[in-house]
């Protein structure tokens, strides 16, 4: 409809401007519609910095034992070893994902897999803690 016509006209006019100006850096099929202006980029960076600053404050009034995934999982591991019946009756394996979800989300706020030097999920401390907990769980179940 009208939107498709507008986009086609807009692209045609940009192509004509590029041809007149001798711009040879443009690759056909690549859109400049998604490119941010300097003001938009500055606004995005400011907004991103505010979110990151706020995320650092989320757990500042929480005891370290209750915002560190490794420490939380150690408490559950102790519970499982000392009181296995109670642990199973509480369906902890179903509760842990919901419990850990907000903690993991906070740690992933700044993670961007599109950046060149991003950290692999498997290398993150929270991922390793969950892996270790799962390995200990499998060992204790085998016993």
UniProtKB/TrEMBL annotation:
InterPro entries listed in its UniProt record: GCFC2-like, GCFC_dom
Keyword Mitochondrion part of the UniProt annotation: no
GO molecular function, a single term: DNA binding
Lineage top rank: taxon: Eukaryota
Region annotation Disordered: where it falls in the sequence: 17-39
PANTHER family assigned: GC-RICH SEQUENCE DNA-BINDING FACTOR, INTRON LARGE COMPLEX COMPONENT GCFC2
Protein name as it appears in the record: GCFC2 factor
Organism of derivation: Lophotis ruficrista
Encoding gene per record: Gcfc2_1
């Amino acid at each position: 409809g009208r939107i498709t016509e507008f986009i086609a006209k807009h692209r045609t006019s940009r192509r004509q401007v590029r041809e007149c100006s001798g711009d040879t850096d443009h690759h056909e099929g690549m859109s400049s519609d998604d490119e941010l202006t300097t003001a938009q980029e500055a606004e995005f960076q400011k907004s991103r910095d505010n979110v990151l600053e706020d995320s650092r404050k989320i757990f500042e009034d929480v005891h370290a034992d209750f915002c560190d995934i490794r420490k939380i999982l150690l408490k559950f591991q102790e519970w499982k070893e000392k009181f296995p019946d109670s642990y199973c009756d509480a369906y902890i394996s179903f509760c842990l994902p919901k419990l850990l979800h907000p903690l993991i989300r906070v740690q992933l706020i700044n993670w961007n897999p599109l950046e060149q030097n991003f950290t692999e999920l498997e290398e993150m401390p929270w991922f390793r803690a969950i892996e270790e907990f799962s390995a200990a769980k499998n060992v204790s179940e085998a016993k």
